[in-house]
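hey m, so remember when u said the tokens were messed up on ur end? i reran from scratch. heres the input so u can diff it against urs
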Amino acid sequence: MKIIAVSAPWLSPRAVIIVLGVAVAAAGTLTLIAHKAHLSRLLPLLPYAAILLCPLMHVFMHGGHGGHGAHGGQGAQPPGDDTKDAQ
């Protein structure tokens, strides 16, 4: 029996993250609507949540381009580029 691999472009990791993000946003919105009485205690904490999320987003969002080490410092010479060695 031969197994055929089917490629599903809509099932890419980015699409899954987007779908999960929309689902979490919808669930959060419905939860906030259902629990309006609790908002008076949570609203003053939102600025602190934003401040705490900034370092977390910085850490996790830098995974796409290799972190801070690839900004032209050490080892940034592309392969086959001998112009730095000739000087």
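this time it looks ok to me. Residues 14-64 form one domain. if urs says something different then somethings off w ur setup not the seq
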